[in-house]
Amino acid sequence: MSGIRNSRTRLIGAAATVVLAALSLTACNDGTGVHDEGASTGASATASSSADASKPNAPTADAPTADAPGADAASGGQQPAGTGTAGSKPAGNGVAAKDPASAGRPGTCEGSNTKTVAAPLNRPVNHMLLTVTNTGSKPCFLYTYPAVRFGEAQAVPPVIEDSQPQAVVTLDPGQSGYASVNLSAADGSASNGRTENSLTVYFHGRSGNESVGTGAHPSLPAKGVYVDDSLKVTYWQQSMDDALSW
């Protein structure tokens, strides 16, 4: 009988040991203990990441925003066109660029770029030849006819219309143009004859209605020249012969 009791005792003890082991294993797998501490840590990290992701316009290291510090450095300091940057030069400096070809373009002949000589002639009688020489460095135009003023005259003499050339007279540097002045009537029939000792020659612009630049003051003979109301001039001519033909 005692042997039977001992066997039962051992069986009960072994069964109790198995039950305790099973209970211990169940306790480890029910989400508590050490496993619970790990799960809690993971949940906290997830919550923190969710909170960061919920922040609006959060800048990242790969793509800085315009408002984020260092955005200018990331974009090379560029600004929108037209805003300019410190030390940058404006598109223009307000100084008009010079046309390289303008240095050789013809201008208008006038007192500052020409020399004028007045020479009384024996033939035709009572005539005077005006010679204008280009003293400048580029060609110039002699437009229309010379506006001459003897002494203190208030008006310039008329032009002989039939003497108008087919083209404007152009003078290269050193070249001369010509016009003749009919001083007085050969038969002495004109009125208001007088002797003048000074002469001013004015130059016309392209329109022919105004004088341009400075006038010329060619010398006259010491005895002066005789003029009357028949005084008139020719258009500027390219050759001396054309000027003297009138």
Distance between the termini: 177 Å
Residue fraction in strands: 15-25%
Class by SSE composition: alpha+beta
Number of helices: 4
Listing every helix as H and every strand as E from the N terminus to the C terminus, the arrangement reads HHHEEEEEEEEEEEH
Principal-axes geometry comes out as globular
Strand segment tally: 11
Estimate the helix proportion, in percent: 10-25%
Radius of gyration: 56 Å
Mean of all residue-level pLDDT scores: 73
Low-confidence stretches: 1-9, 18-101
Largest sheet: 5 strands, mixed
Protein architecture, described:
β8 and β9 form a beta hairpin. Strands 1, 4, 5, 8 and 9 form a five-stranded mixed sheet that branches. The chain is globular, with a radius of gyration of 56 Å. The longest helix has 27 residues, at 2-28. Mean pLDDT is 73; it is low at 1-9 and 18-101. It starts with a helix and ends with a helix. It is of the alpha+beta class and 246 residues long. The protein has helices at 2-28, 34-53, 71-74, 240-244, and strands spanning 107-108, 114-121, 127-134, 140-150, 169-171, 176-182, 194-196, 199-204, 211-216, 225-227, 232-233. It has a domain at 106-244.
Task: Throw out a few tags for this protein.
246 residues, single chain, alpha+beta
List the helices and strands and how they pair.
Blueprint: H1 2-28, H2 34-53, H3 71-74, E1 107-108, E2 114-121, E3 127-134, E4 140-150, E5 169-171, E6 176-182, E7 194-196, E8 199-204, E9 211-216, E10 225-227, E11 232-233, H4 240-244
